[in-house]
Write a structure and sequence with these properties.
With 527 residues, the protein is mainly beta. It folds into 4 domains: 104 residues, no CATH class; 90 residues, Sandwich (Immunoglobulin-like), CATH 2.60.40.1180; 161 residues, Galactose-binding domain-like (Jelly Rolls, Sandwich); 109 residues, Jelly Rolls. The chain has 6 helices and 38 strands. Strands 16, 17, 18, 21, 22, 25, 28 and 29 form an 8-stranded mixed sheet that branches. A 6-stranded antiparallel sheet has the order 30-14-31-36-33-34, with no helix packed on it. A 5-stranded antiparallel sheet has the order 6-7-13-9-10, with no helix packed on it. The longest helix is centred in the first third of the chain and has 12 residues. It is flat, with a radius of gyration of 34 Å. The chain starts with 8 loop residues before the first strand and ends with a strand.
């Protein structure tokens, strides 16, 4: 017994020495009928003064230190099992893995400590389930987790522990509801069929007191198709990470109007937000006034140099609170930011937490106009690592859609849309919680409780989903199955207000990417 927990077996890896306290604990464990399994090598050297640990190990194992090290270094190839009472030696010549020592160890442990549980699944889900077994009084508790995005059927075999057919219950870890399961006997195991949805966890208890089975709860139908009312609990975002770039060798860009909306920048090179050295790789000899004739790939650059970046967006509406947000390190080098030809003062960017503690926010107010708006950035690049290296963001209550070929436009929020589809609701870069609400006629069940399920609706989601009926929360789900249990008293005659709250992560906002479950690929968000 260690720390209030009882152990039946101890496995020792290959070791060359052992501290005295650990040796005494191991010897006492053996004397109290504990099982010790040693793999390949027991201690062959003493590291503390006093009575020799090596001699003590030799007396227990009847193995000399010299013989053990010869075996371990490959004097005898293959695997040999040696039993000394409750001490079992898995002797291998050389590598444990190459000589099949791991398999021999597994087989030995099954003989010494028969498996309390076996798991049978289809081939694709062979390694999908992680499990933990704990014995509590007269009960055996098994916690199983599907660690994959696969959904599959499994058979769980539980050792009968002297009973002809074990009593197995499935406990709901959220509600505490207990369901008695049907058990079929196969050899010394009682087999129960169990369905695992993606990332679902299950709790099985063997030997629990049998309660009267509860009647199956009725399921209520809530049609989720069509347009629901859409409410954003956070500001929407427009991610700006593509810019037109040009170098200003004569430092006359401002005089030439490079910071204004009307300047034509179609001949400038298009780059992403990254260091200037990486942006140069996107350039061609005709796109930048630099020398591309050197031996090294790319142009020759004499630093310091002034570099301009421009990007535009179309505004169909001007939100009451519209903000330009960037990180402190988004621009490396001395810089100036212009909006529609007007310089934004550096002190107009205030520390404000949006998605990171290093965010700086500038309230744009009346600086934005309906129609085309242009953001220009002038940077003095003194190192090839300088430049515009991270994305900008617009935050406010607006929708986002395409403008021309590669541009974006902000417009009014539609107010209604499909449940759980950020792209269709023109919220491609949104991070936070969206509430979808609809007034529906629901037939009140005769039972005290009911179930509701949205597995098909959210089969490809990574969001946290919460359901509310007439303001009563049925709870949140971080993964499938997307099923809930509610109180029938919450349902009233006539129309009922159903709200589905979906909360996502910062992934879309910070990367402009999403994970496609069907193709198992990371793809760009749709605008």
């Amino acid at each position: 017994v260690v720390g209030g927990v009882r152990y039946d077996a101890l496995v020792l890896p290959p070791i060359t020495n052992l501290e005295r306290e650990a040796f005494e604990a191991t010897r006492n464990f053996l004397n109290e009928d504990g099982v010790v399994v040693s793999v390949s090598l027991l201690p062959i050297e003493d590291i503390e003064e006093g009575a020799s640990i090596v001699d003590g190990v030799s007396r227990i194992s009847d193995m000399e230190a010299g013989r053990m090290i010869k075996d371990y270094l490959g004097h005898e190839l293959g695997v040999h099992l040696v039993n000394r009472g409750n001490l079992h030696l898995v002797r291998t010549g050389g590598s444990v893995v190459q000589n099949g020592g791991a398999r021999a160890l597994a087989d030995l442990l099954v003989q010494l400590q028969p498996r309390q549980m076996i798991i049978q699944t289809e081939q694709r889900a062979t390694s999908a389930i992680l499990s933990h077994h704990r014995r509590d009084g007269g009960q055996d508790i098994f916690f199983l987790v599907n660690a994959t995005g696969l959904a599959f059927d499994a058979k769980i075999g539980l050792r009968a522990q002297g009973r002809k057919k074990p009593s197995v219950q499935l406990w709901d870890v959220e509600t505490g509801e207990r369901t008695q399961l049907d058990v079929e006997t196969e050899s010394e195991y009682g087999m129960v069929p169990l369905r695992f949805e993606a990332y679902q966890s299950r709790l099985l208890v063997v030997g629990a007191e049998v309660d009267e089975p509860e009647p199956e709860l009725p399921a209520i139908e809530v049609p989720a198709k069509g347009n629901w009312r859409v409410d954003l609990e956070d500001d929407n975002a427009l991610r700006i990470d593509r810019f037109r770039m040009q170098v200003d060798l004569q430092r006359k860009g401002q005089n030439l109007g490079w910071h204004t909306t009307g300047y034509a920048d179609s001949r400038w090179v298009t780059v992403g937000a990254k260091p200037f050295s990486e942006q140069l790789k996107d350039a061609t000899p005709t796109s930048l006034p630099l020398d591309f004739n050197g031996a090294d790939p790319g142009p020759s650059v004499s630093l310091p140099i002034v570099v301009w970046y421009r990007t535009s967006f179309q505004a169909d509406v001007i939100p009451n609170k519209l903000a330009l947000v960037k990180d402190r390190g988004a621009i490396q080098g001395n810089y100036q930011i212009f909006l529609n030809g007007t310089k934004l003062p550096n002190n107009s960017f205030r520390p404000t937490f949006r998605y990171d503690q290093s965010n700086l926010t500038c309230a744009l107010g009346r600086r934005v106009t309906k129609g085309k708006n242009t953001i220009a950035v002038r940077v003095e690049v003194e190192s090839l690592d300088d430049g515009l290296i991270d994305a900008f963001y617009l935050f406010g209550k607006f929708s986002v859609r395409k403008w021309k070929t590669d541009g974006t436009r902000i417009g009014a929020l539609s107010g209604r849309g499909p449940v759980g589809d950020l792209d269709a609701n023109r919220l491609p870069y949104y991070a936070g919680t969206v509430s979808y609400t609809h007034e529906l006629a629901i037939k009140k069940p005769n039972s005290k409780r009911f179930t509701i399920e949205f597995d098909k609706l959210f089969k490809d989601t990574e969001d946290i989903v919460e359901i509310l009926i007439n303001g009563h929360s049925l709870g949140a789900r971080l993964w499938s199955p997307y099923a809930w249990v509610g109180q029938s008293s919450w349902i009233k005659a006539g129309k009922n207000r159903v709200t589905i709250r979906c909360t996502n992560t910062l992934s879309r906002q910070l990367t402009a990417l999403r994970y496609n479950h069907r193709s198992h690929r990371v793809v760009e968000v749709k605008i």
